[in-house]
Design a protein that fits this description.
350 residues, alpha/beta, Aspartate Aminotransferase, domain 1, Aspartate Aminotransferase, domain 2, 2 domains, seven-stranded mixed beta sheet, 11 helices, 12 strands, globular, binds pyridoxal-5'-phosphate
Length: 350
């Protein structure tokens, strides 16, 4: 606290990102990064962009990348908004589309950035409890609200909600924006982007950080009705006109041009996820069904916090949340086969 702080800053409760330890040789399974690197075509595209043109500002509209993403998802470029990571896109959504004098609804167990944006922009948030099996119940989203947001698959549970249930939430809220945060959609779910032409209240956000192995590049986007995209552009152009630099624009475009690499990485994560799930189940864990690149698991007798600590002592970092309902769970990112073997051995040793 300092006399120079604004009252708002004084009350802020910032998001705490998963730790990025500086030690070498760690088995780092705590922040849902992709264990397989980005496509070599992404590296080439970024290298080709490393030249004198860096003295010039990038395209503020990211026209070329928006066209690529729109083509990939069969929508128009006017339905695509780009941001510096999907976190930035989400921030603009909260500011531009959720201020309607009623609370924004999101699950009680979910991405912990949502309440942070509520605090930053002074928006009331209201948590909606997941069921006993940690599922979203669409009927619970039939109540007055200023907007709805949930990840699909949800984080940190990994549980996926079928599109028919997403539609039920959209139909119950025709006058409010419903945001589906699809950070993990490529690991087995079906994207709601196919629904945007039917629902003017639907906004879908995605990121290149997870399935496309580009967490370090910071590129995310939203797809929805042009009216929603226009709101986001108004916020963006009142904040930072150039959120994506030249390297990010070039690298992200190349990522969409190497479908084979993308599929190979996703398939690799999915098959390892199934292998790790069976191994942990045979070691006495309950593992929630996951369609993400991580699993959420609790042991029948061992405490979550002690397991996380015991793994850390062996150089294996997983995420543990000291929060109601989930304090016995570990969120474990799916790593390379070797990292996953180390995890399974580490747990066996405990
Ligand atoms: C990782 C993640 C994001 C944000 O990713 P960016 O790196 O900012 O694009 C958004 N939502 C959820 C649920 C995530 O797990």
């Amino acid at each position: 606290m300092s006399k120079f702080w604004s009252p708002l800053v004084n009350d802020l409760v910032p998001y705490v990102p998963g730790e990025q330890p500086k030690m070498a040789n760690l088995v780092k399974l705590n922040t849902n990064e992709n264990p397989f690197g980005p496509s070599p075509k992404v590296i080439e595209a970024i290298q080709a962009e490393l030249n004198d043109s860096l003295r010039l500002y990038p395209d503020p509209e990211g026209e070329s990348l928006r066209q690529t993403i729109a083509g990939y998802h069969n929508v128009n470029p006017e339905q695509v908004f780009l941001g510096n990571g999907s976190d930035e896109v989400l921030a603009h959504i909260f500011y531009g589309l959720f201020q309607h004098g009623a609370p924004v609804l999101f699950p009680d167990v979910t991405y912990s950035f949502y309440p942070v944006y509520c605090g930053l922009y002074n928006i009331e948030g209201k948590t909606v409890p997941l069921t006993d099996t940690f599922e979203i119940n669409p009927a619970d989203y039939r109540q007055p609200n200023g907007g709805v947001i949930f990840p699909n698959p949800n984080a940190p549970t990994g549980r996926y909600l079928g599109l028919e249930h997403v539609e039920a939430i959209l139909q119950a809220n025709p006058d409010r924006v419903v945001v589906v945060d699809e950070a993990y959609i490529d690991f087995g779910g079906e994207s709601a982007i196919t629904l945007v032409d039917n629902y003017p209240n639907l906004l879908v956000s995605q990121t290149l950080s997870k399935a496309r192995s580009l967490a370090g590049l910071r590129v995310g986007f939203a797809v929805g009705h042009p009216d929603l995209i226009e709101a986001l552009n108004r916020v963006k152009n009142s904040f930072n006109s150039y959120p994506l630099d030249r390297l990010a624009l070039a690298g992200a475009k190349a990522a969409y041009e190497d479908e084979a690499w993308f599929r190979k990485c996703c398939d690799g994560v999915i098959s390892e996820r199934e292998r790790v799930t069976s191994a942990l189940e045979s070691l006495g864990f309950e593992v929630l069904p996951s369609k993400a690149n991580f699993i959420f698991a609790r042991h029948k007798t061992q405490a979550g916090e002690a397991l996380a600590k015991g793994l850390r002592e062996q150089g294996i970092i997983v995420r543990h949340f000291n929060k109601p309902r989930i304090s016995e769970f570990l969120r474990i990112t799916i790593g390379t086969p070797e990292q996953n073997d180390a995890l399974i051995e580490g747990i066996r040793a405990l």
